[in-house]
Amino acid sequence: MSKPCPFEDATAAAARGGGWSAELAAHRDGCLRCAELTLVAAVLAADAESLAADPRPLPDPGVIWLRAALAAREQKLARAMRAITWVQRAAFAAAAAVGLFVAPELWSLLKPALAGLDLASPFAGMPRAAGSPVLALGVSLAILGALALYELTAMHES
Amino acid sequence: MIPMALSLPGTAVTQPAAAMAMDEAAFRLLYERTARPLRAYLLRCCGDPSLADDLIQEAYLRYLRSGFAGESDDHRRHYLFRIATNLLRDHFRRRRPETALAAEHEGSQSRGEAVDLRSDVGGAMAELSPKDRQMLWLAYAEGASHLEIARVLGLRAASIRSMLFRARRRLAAKLEARGFRPFEETS
Predict the structure, then answer these.
(1) Using an 8 Å Cβ cutoff, are B107 and B123 in contact?
(2) With B105 labelled, which of A122, B24, B35, B127 sits at a CA distance of 20 to 30 A?
(3) What distance in Å separates the CA atoms of residue B10 and residue B96, rounded to the nearest whole number?
(4) A·B CB contacts under 8 A
(5) B17 and A44: CB-CB below 8 Å?
(6) Which pLDDT does position B114 carry in this prediction?
(7) Residues A34, A90: one domain?
């Protein structure tokens, strides 16, 4: 690279906006670096001016604003969704932990109730089974657990 | 069910979202002031008018999503040019993944590039590397300082002067080959 010319900045400004002093014009005529700078700066400034006057319409700012607002709303929803998913996971984990903790006790309570069922004659055994609160609790927990699992997997698939 | 629980009451989508740092009127004003120069920059750098329109929309979308407030009009304008430059870089990388690095250093348009050759200036610019085009446009069409160019292009400010000099030489040669002369009236 040749040594920078001290007139470069002034030359660039004059080439873009006019206002050549006699001294600067004389320098430019004798300095190859400033001559090239003048050519490039003047051509690009004129080109920028003509492109700025381009009659083609710009994209509608209203549409851009709308798209940005929609994207922001979607982002908000995704954030809320994430929070709910985490709460659900935590609840599921807590329920599983409690379930595991009380499972032996529950089983010992359920075992006599199940033993009391007369599977050979369900109609005869029905009132006793249905009347057992422990059995009802066990069945409800199993159904709720299955529903929670289904919901979690369905949400991840969608 | 979860999806139902999340179906929030109707919120007008034209309401400014929390992430956006300005309201619609302020955005329209910014757009009015900056969109044409930004489109000119994108057009001269990518050479394709329809791509320039796509990129300009994406640039403003990213700007709004960023929540950038800016201290002044100039600050916001530079930020927009920076986003546009990143979009251009992504575009050139996508087009020529096998020559991504070369594209940063040496120029000439790719075969598939729909270059705007309607003007001699467009043709001459298209023969330069993307970085040369960006640097020259920012310096001489936008009147940006070396520091501003460095910030927009993500380069070291100290190296801008020499890089600009070399890019200028290349463009001057292309222009002269097309019949432009240093001191003729160009507008």
Answers:
(1) no
(2) B35
(3) 44
(4) 152
(5) no
(6) 39
(7) no
Please check whether residues A86 and A151 belong to one and the same domain. Answer: yes
Both A86 and A134 in one domain: the answer is: yes
User: Within 13 A of A151's CA, how many CA atoms are on the CB side?
Assistant: 16
Looking at residue B20, what DSSP letter applies?
A: -
CB A50 within 8 A of CB A63: no
**Token code pair at residue A144:** 């709720």
Interchain contact, B56 vs A58, CB within 8 Å: yes
Average pLDDT over residues A12-23: 84
Percent above pLDDT 90 for chain A: 11
At B13 the pLDDT is 41
For B131, residues 6+ apart whose C-beta sits below 8 A from its C-beta are: B104, B105, B153, B163, B167
Q: What tokens does B112 get? A: 């598939």
* Low-confidence residues in chain B, pLDDT < 70: 1-21, 96-119, 182-187
Whole-number Å distance between alpha carbons of B18 and B173: 51
Q: Mark residue B67 as left, alpha or beta (left: phi above 0; alpha: psi -120 to 50; beta: remaining).
A: left
Candidates A20, A32, A43, A74, partner chain B, best to mutate (most B CBs within 10 A): A43
Instruction: Give the range of the structural domain holding residue A33, as residue numbers without chain letter.
Output: 8-53
